Amino acid sequence: MVGVDAGATTTRCVVAALDGEVVGRGVAGGANRNSSGGEVSAALRAALAAALDTIDRTDEVGLGVVGAAGSAGAGRTAFRAAAERAWRAAGISGELVTVTDIEVAYAAGTAEPDGVLLLSGTGALAARFGDGVLRRRCDGYGWLLGDEGSAVWIGVGALRAVLAALDGRGEPTTLVAEFSRHFEVGADTSESRAQALIAATFAVPPAALGRLAPFVSTAAEAGDPVAGRICAAAADRLLHTFDSVEPPPAATVVLAGSVLLSSGPVSRVVRAGLLARTGTEPRPARDGAAGAAALAVGRFTGAPVPPVVHTRLTGSPHFPGRG
Fold first, then answer.
1. Do the bridges between strand 133-139 and strand 95-100 make them parallel or antiparallel, or are there none, so unpaired?
2. Contact, 190 vs 167, CB < 8 A?
3. Can you give the residue ranges of the ATPase BadF/BadG/BcrA/BcrD type domain (predicted)?
4. How far apart are CA 73 and CA 182, in angstroms?
5. Would you give the distance in Å from CA 215 to the centre of its chain?
6. Residue 114 and residue 130 in contact, taking contact as beta carbons nearer than 8 Å
7. Digits of tens for pLDDT over the chain (323 positions)?
8. Residue 320 has what DSSP assignment?
9. Largest Cα–Cα distance of the chain, in whole Å?
10. In the chain, which residue ranges form alpha helices assigned H by DSSP?
11. How far apart are CA 153 and CA 266, in angstroms?
């Protein structure tokens, strides 16, 4: 079985046996047509090639599940075509199934058919599942139109605060110095520094702005009030998104994405909010490729994935494999 999680910044691939034993892994660059830049099928092909290098015959692959953001709705046809090109280039004859990143992220955290996924990484969304089917989702509209509380949302908000601090509209923040170092900006005046930061920001893909989020978390922990308000707002938006999918009482909750799987201020507030709402600790889902492989096992056998197989694929029932 093959499982692929095509993210905005990283594409991961897992090759596994039906019993859940992982026999190969591959990693490549981002494969999100809206925010990664580059050619989607090239990233998929690179991740597949790296993972399949560990097995002698690609005709042994019975089925593969490839999941990605932007693979639903209007983007379904384009992503399917890109995945098929990569599949053929890798020399695989088995069946190919394309799904959303929502499904693979949820499957990476639990084998239970009912529950809620709350994701905040490059993007952000909540999704409620029932009987293994996605019943309702909220947000996940991309960096320009939504993804409230995501790493990119945090990064963009912090950049706006930095520019406001430089031109006098906002209060001073340590993020000015942090972002200047990150983008290697040196300038004599506030105006020239602001223009240099603008140029550096537009020179990178939108997904790359999510790399600023850890700086914001660190500044918030150190007591920077501007960074603190941004992190508090991110946590508030994420909990509101969770509430909007109308989760049932005591719902199983899977957390995904770098913002929620870190130990920073956003994750801390969100986890406390979820515990208060559901009475149970959320489960982390670190490896979407393993989740995709679990979906592949279920689709190939036509039966629910046994807990022992899910555990073997993802690392453990509560602490899935590497991200």
1. unpaired
2. yes
3. 2-296
4. 36
5. 19
6. yes
7. 999 998 767 889 999 999 999 988 998 877 555 444 446 788 888 989 888 887 766 678 889 999 987 666 656 788 888 888 888 888 888 899 999 889 999 999 998 889 999 999 989 999 999 988 899 999 999 899 999 999 999 999 999 999 999 999 999 999 999 999 999 888 789 999 999 999 999 999 998 999 999 999 999 999 999 999 999 999 999 999 999 999 988 889 999 999 999 989 999 999 999 999 999 999 998 788 999 999 999 999 988 888 899 988 987 443 333 33
8. -
9. 65
10. 40-52, 76-89, 101-109, 151-167, 175-182, 190-202, 213-221, 225-244, 258-261, 265-278, 288-301, 307-314
11. 12
Calculate the alpha carbon distances from 269 to 56, 215, 217, 228, 282 in Å: 47, 18, 12, 12, 13
CB 284 within 8 A of CB 320: yes
* Cα–Cα dist 228/216, whole Å: 8
- Spell out the domain ranges in the chain: 2-112+285-314
Q: Read off the tokens for 162.
A: 């930095």
Q: Which residues, listed in sequence order, are joined to residue 136 by a DSSP beta bridge? A: 128
CA-based nearest residue to 35, from 118, 136, 153, 138: 153
- Tell which residue, 216, 16, 11, 233, has the closest CA to residue 124: 233
* Three-class SS state of 250: coil
Residue 10: which H helix or E strand, with range?
Answer: strand 10-16
Q: Which amino acid is at 274?
A: L
* Residue 15 neighbours by CB under 8 Å, 6+ apart: 1, 2, 22, 23, 24, 25, 51, 52, 54, 55, 61, 293
**What is the DSSP track for 29-86?**
E---TTTT-S-HHHHHHHHHHHHHTTSS-GGG--EEEEEETT-SGGGHHHHHHHHHHH
Measured between alpha carbons, how far is 248 from 127 in angstroms, rounded to an integer? Answer: 12
